[in-house]
Amino acid sequence: MRNTRPIELRKLMPFQAQSSRKYRTSDSIHSDEDPLIDEELGESAPLTGPSDSPQPRRRTTNNRRRKKRTFPWPFGNSTRKQNPRTIPLHADDKQKKYAPNIIVNQKYNIITFLPIVLFEQFVVFFNLYFLLVALSQFVPALKIGYIFTYFGPLCFVLLVTISKEAMDDFQRHKRDKEANSQLYQSLTSDGFRSIPSSKIRVGDMIVIQKDQRIPADMILLRTTEDSGSCFIRTDQLDGETDWKLRLAVPSLQRLSSDDALNVVRGDIYADAPHKDIHSFVGTFTHVDEDTGIEQMEPLGVENTLWTNTVLASGTAIGFVIYTGKDTRAVMNTNHPKTKVGLIDREINRLAKITNYLGKINKILFIVTLAMSVAMVGLNGFHGLWYIYVFRFLILFSSIIPISLRVNLDMGKTVYARQIEKDSEIEGTIVRTSTLPEELGRIGYLLSDKTGTLTKNDMELKKLHMGTMSYSLDTMDEIMSHLATAFAENESALIQTGPGVVGMSGKGRRNIASRVKEIVQALALCHNVTPVISDVGDITYQASSPDEVAIVKWTEQMGLTLVGRDVNKIQLRVEASGDTLEYDILHIFPFTSETKRMGIIIRDRQTQEVTFYEKGADVVMSGIVQYNDWLDEECGNMAREGLRTLVVAKKRLSEEMYEDFKKKYHEAELSIHDRNARKQAVIEEVLETELELLGLTGVEDKLQDGVKNTLEILRNAGLRIWMLTGDKIETATCIAVSSKLVSRNQNIHQISKLKVPVEVLNELDNLRSKVDCCLVIDGESLQLCLDHFQDEFIDVATMLPAVVCCRCSPTQKAEITRLIKEYTQKRVLSIGDGGNDVSMIQAANVGMYKTNFDLYYFSCVGIVGKEGRQASLAADFSVTQFSHLTKLMLWHGRNSYKRSAKLSQFVIHRGLIISVMQAVFSALFYFAPIALYQGMLVVGYATVYTMAPVFSLVLDQDVSEEIALLYPELYKELTKGRSLSFRTFFTWLLISVYQGGAIMILSIILFEEEFIHIVSISFTALILNELLMVALEINTWHRVMVISEIVTVLIYIGSMWLLPTYFDMSFILTGRFVWKVAVITAVSSLPLYVAKIIKRRYAPPSYTKLT
């Protein structure tokens, strides 16, 4: 293996919650964005206090929810019990025991493709109905016209859909094949050999090169770094962009060469496969060759390399412990439900009949059936009347437009393309192309705070030390004190006087000494690793932007982090140029349960051992020595919108440290409850009577344009909720500064509720405050959801703004679902981190905010520095929160209006020809005889009308400037008036009038040329449809003009090509032309007149602005 420069890293030894309950641990990058409720178990701490408090009362609607049936899908993932495993370093049966390491993202294979795709297609009512109609043509009594007339359109629609599905699955197959065939080096007794990723098995030793993807879950055995460490990038797994640091097994790292691994005898114990990427319990047991004694070394998450992470430094050898379905990456793969837009549901209600007519869900089928029965009934139900009913059902089948789905899907593709090509919202990506029109129907906006409303770009703004406080304008004093403290001897920093003992531990330290201690603590207590470029510039890598901000601040103050590895930290004093070195004895990273991190270091110069710790005030206040200022100052900083961290320390004697080391090692070797035992040792030995050094306040800057965006969206009628894990004071301050709370709007705060009675009192007080902003903490929120869910949602959804603080991912998702179910409004959720995934998936529209600079070429989702996981669950991705304005007010408006108009016009196109068929049959003694057959039926919905009708996707009722200038116009969209039963019945009446007028006038005016009734009426029908398209257009586009002209030319040209239907000697006469013109004018001119009158006396709201 090649040698590389040692790279610094951190050692991961996570704290654990003191509770005996098992919680999921996580290396969240925000100290304030962590769950108070376990995300997987959905558990929370007891909130009710006394045991005799009322039992939780759930929404009755939840209890009545229908349980979904699950079918044994033969090619689905089977559920099997997972067990711990002990794997010898050199196993012979590793090929058989465990899951193969194959990546399978394909939905189908050669055998299952057609059955599954056809099943999915014929679940759609449109397709099933037309299949039955087409099959009926094989029954002689039901046969009407040519069979291809019915199978042609159906086959075309199925061909388009199946081809698209096949292409998508083929692309998935190619990606799977590429990933499975990637070659890796495997270390065997015969040396190194290349094997593809799909052939890797549990027990293999795999060599991973720099920038290579980890193919399976592994234990890190050795690295090329002398310290036994390496960096990995985990953005594809947990969404965090910063590098993580991993450690090799110490005894194996000390081996003389890689080949020595082949002679080591031992085994690795690994706990059962599970989803938690931040937790692992294992041991490495081997026999020491020198002493012959069996030794056991603990293995934790710091020794693992998870699948889909990337090695960022050096070269490593890993031992495979989980493969395929057992890997963390596969077990965490989400399969969210397919989201269906509201407009699709509304169209479906107009498509077919349901179990009961009260819903009027499938009205088009009712119309078809009613017309068929009416035609037979008017003839007296004579003879084989039921056969006639079926024949009329076939004749009127065009009422149910099979092409509607294709038109809408193509339209949505156009909308998605327009969004992605908009230069003003560059970087926006549409992941779910079926939902663009949903952006025009949003009633509630649910947003994360950190990284979404704020930049996740931290800057230390304040430092408070009890009797002293420093802000940006006085930071130069800290630099001066720090230089003084390092320049003088420690004895000079002790102020002595009459009656004061001049001893280091008891003397009253001056300001410079205290400043030095807290700056030194901040420079040491972190998980930041410096990376020095070729030109000598220092950049920092860490999983938390808070820590990077603090380390940058210590650099500005004159104490720079210049080096770090697993064993030591190096600081440079800028004033003198001296380098200070410290040994890292233990490090305890931040977790969501402990909300604090600590480090034990030894000063190489003085040999003093010190435990430093920093964390959230809610936990640190009970650990540090008594003081009378911490709680007050934390509140003051939070009200300024600053994120607070409490810093403390404790000096350890050698005896105390050795005692801790012994107890902690014993806890590390335990298999059961390892983390809990380790945490118990930390709390018993270290976390007692810590000396409080100070309090830091870090500012998270607002995103560009957030204030203006929130104000515009509020004016557009949206009710905005901010769901954050931050403390209540900080969240309130951000709500005010971001204009989430409008001017002169009161803030009603609910916090620290313990019993249900208090909830009722607060809700009663809130009912009278309809124009205030509610701010509620997570504990009180959970109490509301447990006991008074209906009452809380009823009140909260009426408020213009709500801020939920200390909110867990589970609570975020639950609130999203409740708002959807209770209000029946469309909900948009936007976030930028892994803790927002559940909220994004639960919403009607999930949006992820990305960081454009980091992810423009690789990911979608708002894009924030928290990573990619949320982006993979999102329907849309934006690079700026401010892009919501144009997405919703302009693109959302256009997508919804266009889809509504397109769908209704396609339905009208089928209704009018069916009405003409009904009139024709009625005039001929209600005989079920087809008016149009063959190419006329096929061409009517395709070459003769499709282009002009589809060009409606380019229409716009108002200009972009007006839509953005007057956000109040958006309120009209949320009412759903563009596509409703009212508009449907309006188009139904139009179809009845136009179809009847064309057919009756064709018969009256062409009584002598009755044999030409087909060409006469069909020509008038086509011209009528083209004029109707022109009537519906608000803003002409050149594509619309071209489609109208080209369609007319195609129709005229087809008359020569279809002599069966068109007699050109008759069509070229003057009588044909003027009489067709009269019929077309009678059918369409009244609608033009009605439109002019309506615009004059009842104009749309937007016309008043143009």
From TrEMBL:
Annotated residues for binding of ATP: 448-450, 547, 590, 614, 643, 724-726, 806, 812, 835-836
First-tier enzyme category under EC: translocase
Bias kind Basic and acidic residues: ranges: 1-11, 24-33
Ranges that cross the membrane: 110-132, 144-162, 363-382, 388-408, 906-926, 932-954, 984-1004, 1010-1027, 1039-1060, 1072-1090
Catalytic activity: a 1,2-diacyl-sn-glycero-3-phosphoethanolamine(out) + ATP + H2O = a 1,2-diacyl-sn-glycero-3-phosphoethanolamine(in) + ADP + phosphate + H(+); ATP + H2O + phospholipidSide 1 = ADP + phosphate + phospholipidSide 2
Residues engaged in binding Mg(2+): 448, 450, 832, 836
Annotated membrane topology: Multi-pass membrane protein
P-type ATPase C-terminal domain: residues covered: 872-1099
Superkingdom as given in the UniProt entry: Eukaryota
Biased composition (Polar residues): 76-85
Classification via Gene3D superfamilies: Calcium-transporting ATPase, cytoplasmic domain N, Calcium-transporting ATPase, cytoplasmic transduction domain A, HAD superfamily/HAD-like
Region (Disordered): 1-88
EC code: 7.6.2.1
GO terms for cellular component: endosome membrane; plasma membrane; trans-Golgi network
Family of this protein: Belongs to the cation transport ATPase (P-type) (TC 3.A.3) family. Type IV subfamily.
The name this protein goes by in its record: Phospholipid-transporting ATPase
Organism lineage string: Eukaryota, Fungi, Fungi incertae sedis, Mucoromycota, Mucoromycotina
